[in-house]
């Protein structure tokens, strides 16, 4: 299957599963706010990485699909909370008003909380379709990527860094946590659905780390080179909020070169894995660096 056809098939499947698993009937309008925050929008890069990594190791597809949906729920909840006035105070996400603008701050907070909980519910099906040891492994990987050592910790550093000058090492550490941890976890969770050799799993983790950082470098570049209608979110907001970025620390051209270097590191890690079916992972690395939104 051609890459674009494969991408569309995964996107369609993930969207269908999300439609079925994110409950419209949650009380007092909560389900509506949850569905608004996660359905019909976004690049779905994290689910694509989960499914591509699972295929690379010939893993269990049912477990991988659940992992893909769970990662997207965690990502969506983080965006809902990040957009709140107490955090980034943004009014546009995925080309539409943010959840708190549409439903109010309290409902947005609850919608994010409920999506986070739902992610782990999805990973632990009662029917026995995913063996308990794998359920526990996937839950652990996702929790560590989303928590204090990963995404939440990175967001804390981000908030504390407003108006501060960070060097490249400190900036890399912040984004390795805030953005990179969940992208890397997406790859490792997909691989965990199979039984790759330890050296192959380590190489896939290195691929995920390089790709995760490349994604953020490109995000910083797009923030100063694209318009809001293209990005689907407020352009230039990092500069306006006086946040350190790869562009402010390295400069625009150096940031572009660094994104290409990270893409090459990701590809080298795939080559080092010794796995035969990594073409889709390699193509996803290209898409991350070549994107315009």
UniProtKB/TrEMBL annotation:
Q: Which cofactor does it need?
A: Mg(2+)
Full protein name? Polyprenyl synthetase family protein
Q: Which UniProt keywords apply?
A: Isoprene biosynthesis, Magnesium, Metal-binding, Transferase
Q: By its UniProt entry, which NCBIfam families does this protein fall under?
A: FPPsyn
The species is Azohydromonas caseinilytica
**Taxonomic lineage per UniProt?**
Bacteria, Pseudomonadati, Pseudomonadota, Betaproteobacteria, Burkholderiales
* A single GO BP: terpenoid biosynthetic process
InterPro entries, per database record: Isoprenoid_synthase_dom_sf (IPR008949), Polyprenyl_synt (IPR000092), Polyprenyl_synt_CS (IPR033749), Prenyl_diphosphate_synthase (IPR053378)
Gene Ontology CC: cytoplasm
PANTHER family linked to this entry = FARNESYL DIPHOSPHATE SYNTHASE
Entry's Pfam families?
polyprenyl_synt (PF00348)
Q: Which family does it belong to?
A: Belongs to the FPP/GGPP synthase family.
Q: Name one GO molecular function term.
A: metal ion binding
Whether Magnesium counts among this entry's keywords is yes
């Amino acid at each position: 299957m051609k890459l674009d056809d494969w991408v569309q098939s995964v996107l369609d499947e993930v969207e269908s599963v999300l439609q079925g698993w994110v409950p419209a009937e949650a009380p007092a309008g909560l389900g509506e706010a949850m569905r608004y925050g996660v359905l019909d929008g976004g690049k779905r890069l994290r689910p694509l990485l989960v499914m591509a990594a699972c295929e690379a190791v010939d893993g269990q597809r049912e477990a991988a699909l659940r992992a893909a949906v769970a990662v997207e729920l965690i990502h969506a909840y983080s965006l809902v909370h990040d957009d709140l006035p107490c955090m980034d105070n943004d009014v546009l996400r995925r080309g539409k008003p943010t959840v708190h603008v549409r439903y109010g701050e309290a409902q947005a907070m609850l919608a994010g909380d409920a999506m986070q909980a739902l992610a782990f519910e999805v990973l632990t099906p009662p029917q026995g379709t995913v063996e308990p040891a794998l359920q526990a492994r996937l839950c652990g990987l996702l929790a560590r990527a989303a928590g204090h050592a990963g995404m939440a910790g990175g967001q804390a550093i981000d908030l504390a860094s407003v108006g501060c000058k960070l060097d490249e090492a400190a900036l890399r550490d912040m984004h390795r946590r805030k953005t990179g941890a969940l992208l890397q976890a997406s790859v490792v969770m997909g691989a965990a659905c199979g039984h790759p050799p330890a050296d192959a799993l380590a190489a896939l983790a290195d691929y995920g780390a390089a790709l995760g950082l490349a994604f953020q470098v490109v995000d910083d570049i797009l923030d100063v080179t694209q318009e809001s209608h293209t990005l689907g979110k407020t352009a230039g907001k990092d500069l306006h909020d006086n946040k350190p970025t790869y562009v402010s620390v390295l400069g625009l051209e150096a940031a572009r070169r660094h994104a290409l270097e990270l893409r090459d590191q990701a590809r080298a890690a795939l080559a080092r894995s010794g796995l035969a079916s990594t073409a889709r992972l390699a193509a996803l690395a290209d898409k991350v660096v070549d994107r315009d939104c």
